[in-house]
Amino acid sequence: MSDVHDNDGGHHHGRPASQIELRARALEALLVEKGLVSTDAIDAVIELYENDVGPQNGAKVVARAWVDPAYRERLLADGAAAIAELGFGGAEGNTMVVVPNGPGVHNAVVCTLCSCYPWPVLGLPPSWYKSAPYRARMVSEPHAVLREFGLELPAKTTIRVWDSTAEVRYLVLPERPSETEGWDEEALAAIVTRDAMIGVAVPVAEQTPA
Amino acid sequence: MDGVHDMGGMHGFGAVVVEGGDEVFHEAWEPRVFALSHLSNVCGLLGGPGGRVVGESMDAAHYLEASYYERWLWTAERQLEAKATIAPGEVEAMMARLAVNEAPPRAADPELAAEAVAQLREGSPAMGIAASSRFAPGDRVRVRRMHPDRHTRCPRYVRGAVGVVERVQGADRLPDRAEYGLPTEPEPVYAVAFASQDLWGESDEPPWTVLLDLFDTYLEPA
C-alpha cells in the first residue's frame, strides 16, 4: 500500500507502482468480479498481438510484392484483398491502401487526430507513433522528423505524408534495395522493418543471405 | 471538437525519437487495458458515443499529461459508466481492496476468449464503394471553415486550404454524426492532396505533399 504513488514513476516492486496501474487492475477485477469478462479472454487478446499479428506480416506482404509483379499490381489496386491472399486482415485493416515508394517519391504515414494504424500487417503501434511530437510534426516538418530517424532523403525526393483521418489504413511499400538481387522471399522479408512500412526508414541490405 | 487531440502542426512537444519510444507497451497493465477495452466492446458493456469522441472530451491538460493507454482506461471507464455497467465509485472501491493486497478475482471463459480473438481477426466491414461522387480525381477542392464543438475528423490545419482530389476512397458514414449514433447515409470519402506551402507557408525544406482522407461534407469546390 505504501508503494502507491501519485505519479507514474515506473517503479515496480511486485506491488502497484502507480495509481494508474492500480486503477487498471481494479477495472479488470471489477468486470471479472461482476462476471462480465474473463481473465483468459484478456490473455488471449494480448497473445494474439504478441505472437501472431505484427510487422512480420507486413514484411511478408512487401517481400511478395518485390518478387511477384502481378501480386504487386493487385496489392496497389486493392490492398486489403491482396493482403488477405497471405492470410492477413481484420480489425483496423479491412480498408487498406498500399502506397509505393519509387524514384523521387517517399511515402510516410501518420494519424494526427489519434493513432490509426494498420494492425493486421504491423501489429499495434510503437509509442513514438502515438506520441504528440510525431502527430504534431510529421505533417508540418517531415524532413526534420525523418532526419531524427536517421533518414536523409535526396533533395529531389518528394515526401508524401498520409494523415489517416478516416477509416482507410495505409502501408508503405518500400523500394527493394538493389543489392538484394536473387534473394528469396524469406530473406527479403527479414530486411523489411516496421519503420520502413510506416515510412520513417528504408530497408537496408546489410548482409547477403547464406 | 477543436481540442488538443488535433495535433497536426503544433509546436512545443519536443523530439519524436526518444528512449523507450520504440516499445509498443511500457508497462504490463497497458496491454491489459487494450484487451479489456476490446472485450468490453465485444460483450456489449459500453454506452454513449464512440471511444474517439469520449477520449477527445478529456480535460485538455489531462489529455496531454496522460499516457496513451491511460487515455484508453479513462475512456473505457466513461463508456462503461454510460451503459451503467459500472457505477461511479466502484473502481475506487476495488482499488482500495487491491491496495491492501486482496487477490484480484480470476475467471475462465474459453468461448469468450475465442470470440474476442475471432472478432479481431474479422474486424469491421470494409468501407463501401461510392456509387457516385461530387468530386473526381484532379478536382480542386477547398476545405470548409468550421469550428465544431463536437467530434469531427477534419483537422484544423487543413480548413480553408485548397487541395486536389487524388482518389475516391469509398463511401462511409460521417463520423461527426455516426459516432453519436445519429442517422447518416454513407457519403464519399476522398484522398485530398495539399501542397506544403498551402498549409504551412514557405519552408527552407523542399516542398512536400500532405494527403488526408476527407468526407464530402468537409469540402466545397475551389
Explained architecture:
The complex is a heterodimer of chains A (210) and B (222). Chain A is mostly helical and 210 residues long. Chain A contains 11 helices and 4 strands; from the N terminus they run H-H-H-H-H-E-E-H-H-H-H-E-E-H-H. In chain A, helix 3 packs across helix 4 and helix 4 crosses helix 5. The longest helix of chain A has 15 residues. Chain A is globular. The N terminus of chain A is likely disordered. Chain B has 222 residues and is α+β, with helices and mostly antiparallel strands. In chain B, helix 1 runs parallel beside helix 4. Chain B is globular, with a radius of gyration of 21 Å. The mean pLDDT of chain B is 97. Chains A and B meet through helix 1, helix 2, helix 7, helix 8 and helix 9 of A and helix 1, helix 4, helix 5, helix 6 and strand 2 of B.
- Spatial strand order of the main sheet of chain B: 4-3-2-1-5
**Largest protein-protein interface:** A-B, 93 and 104 residues
Strand pairing plus helix content of chain A: what structural class? mainly alpha
Average pLDDT of chain A: 92
Strand content of chain B: 15-25%
Q: Could you give the order of the helices and strands of chain B?
A: HHHHHHEEHEHEE
Helix content of chain B: 25-40%
